[in-house]
Design goal:
Layout (H helix, E strand, L loop, with lengths): L3 E8 L9 E9 L2 E9 L1 H19 L4 E9 L2 E4 L15
Parallel strand pairs: 1-4
Antiparallel strand pairs: 2-3, 4-5
Length: 94
């Protein structure tokens, strides 16, 4: 079986001058619903998009694709998961 491998590299440097994004989040705590505005770094939004992309790919072809996510932050490289089948899930990419 042929496995399609994809590496996502998310660099902090690319987002230094990008303003934070406002996210409208709906919370329900003990039966009380409330909308709040949360500011999050643009890099977090990019990582959420990568996670959505991986989720769709896992749904369509669960055994034919593999992803590795690499983040660069403060001159440090962090590999969030590797090619092992056991790490091809969202518990490792966070």
């Amino acid at each position: 079986m042929k496995i399609h491998r994809t590496i996502f590299v998310i660099s902090e440097g690319a987002f230094r001058n990008v303003p934070q994004l406002d996210s409208d989040i709906e919370l329900e705590i003990k039966g009380i619903e409330k909308n709040i505005m949360v500011k999050q770094p643009f890099r977090t939004t990019v990582l959420e998009c990568v996670m959505d992309y991986c989720r769709v790919a896992f749904d369509i072809m669960p055994k034919e694709c593999a992803f590795t996510v690499v983040m660069e932050q403060r001159d440090e490289i962090r590999i969030l998961n590797n090619w092992d089948q056991a790490e091809q899930n969202f518990l490792h990419v966070r």
